[in-house]
Every structure is written in C-alpha cells, then in structure tokens.
Amino acid sequence: MKFLVSGSTGFVGTKVVAFLKSQGHEVVGVSGYKPSQKRLTIPMVGRGAELQPAALDFGPDVIVHAATYFVGQHQSSDIARLVDANIACGMELLEIAQATDAKFLTLSSSWQHFDGATYSPVNLYAATKQGFDDIVTFYEDSGVHVDRLTLFDTFGPGDRRGKIVSLLLQAAKSGEALAVGAKTNLIDLTYVDDVARAICAVAADDSNRGPIDAVIRSGPVPLVELVETIIRAIECPVPVVWEAREARPREMQTDWIFGQPLDGWHPEISLSEGIKRTWADSWNAKRE
Whole-angstrom Cα distance, residue 58 to residue 49? Predict the structure, then answer.
C-alpha cells in the first residue's frame, strides 16, 4: 500500500514511518519545512504549490495526518503556527484524499475533552484540534473515508518536546531539581511504539468496515507515582520540588472517560519498561 504521512519527521510520525516501512509499504512524507537530510528515511514533499501535484502523482491509498503543533499555554505569536499546523495542513491533505479517494487517518487529542466532556478544550491547542475535527465532517459528508484516533500523552526515546518524562530524566542526569506541580495531578502515558502500532494497524486496515473513531490510552497515574516509577526503573534519584510550578488551568485531576477504546489494541510496553528504554537511549545519545 502507498502512504502519505504528514509530521513524518516528528516524534510520533517517525515511528509510524518506521512501522509502515517494516511492513513493506511505500511511504512519502509531507513537511512544512525543510528537514535535515540526515533525518530523512523516506522521500519528502513540501507543502505549498508542489504538494497537490506531487501527491496526485504518488496516488496514496492512505493519508496519515500526524503533523501537529503543540503549545501548553499559547502566546499571540503562536496563533499563526497553531492554525497552520493544526487546521490548514489537514485541510490541504483532505483535499488530496478527496481527489485520490484515499482513506484519511487523523489524530485528535485528549486535551479536547477536559474532565471527560464531549468537547471542552484545555487550551487553544486543543481548540484548534477540535476546529479541524469539525472541518473533517464536511469532507466525510462529501464521501471521504475518515478514521480518527484520539491520543493521550506519549513518551519514549528521542522525545525532544520538553514533556514531563524527558524533563524528569534530565533532572536525574543533571541532579538539578525540577519544579513540578501537585502530587495528585494525573497523567496518562503510552509508550510511543505502542501508539505507532495502533496508528499503523488502523491505517493499513483495508477491510470495508465503517470508519473507526477510537481512543488510545494506557490509564492515568498520579504524578507522584510517575516519579516513583522512574526512580525504581532507572535506579537513580530524581530531584523534584513539589508544587513549585504554578498550576496550569484545567490540570487533569480525575480520569477523563470518553469515547471507545480501539478494538483489539492494548499497550505492550509498561510504563516502567518504557522508562528504562528511554533512559538507556538518552545515555547512548549523550555518548554520540
């Protein structure tokens, strides 16, 4: 099968590309910027005037829209990029899906569902993700087959997004205490390989069953439990200062229950094992 993957050089996207290639599929990436040639493992096409003719020439069977721009608390300077990455990019790809009769797989965010609501955005990032989901409905009504997976938090080797697991591991390395929030704050983490496996399973499913709309998650843990799990996994102290970080609006304090889990999927890598792999990889990267 032929796959067009946006966000193919990102944290989740690179894993998706690797899984698809390992299964013998043909993959072309979409990028809004010029990535380093050292990072490329597949042919790339840029956005803009060249995107649609190149995509039409490629003739994808499936478009995986993994591109996104995340910012926890936005500044005015973030608005243009949020709209471009989280709305405009997907619209361009939906036009291609409509023109090529390709299946379209989009990734939504749990942050669109504060406290388990059908829709209640945690921040502007989540609102732009919902804005795109609403636009998708127009294309679905026009005949585009759309599958949707909603993701909670992800972690794993090579994560340079400044997320909590990476920050805690860096604190363990440096010995410098990390300011964190309340011990009771919850986080729902899934190892990136497990997430990519779910994405690829849905993307490569060429059965005639109806559109998939499912949630990928491992289950929430309190922040204090995450820190304790990291300490046990890496056998190293993790210096933190509790409640030293100002609480963000709409922190996860209760389990956000919404949607349906992906049928037949479950995480294979535990939180502890995933942390061990991430820690080991961070030392290898340092030596390189």
Answer: 15
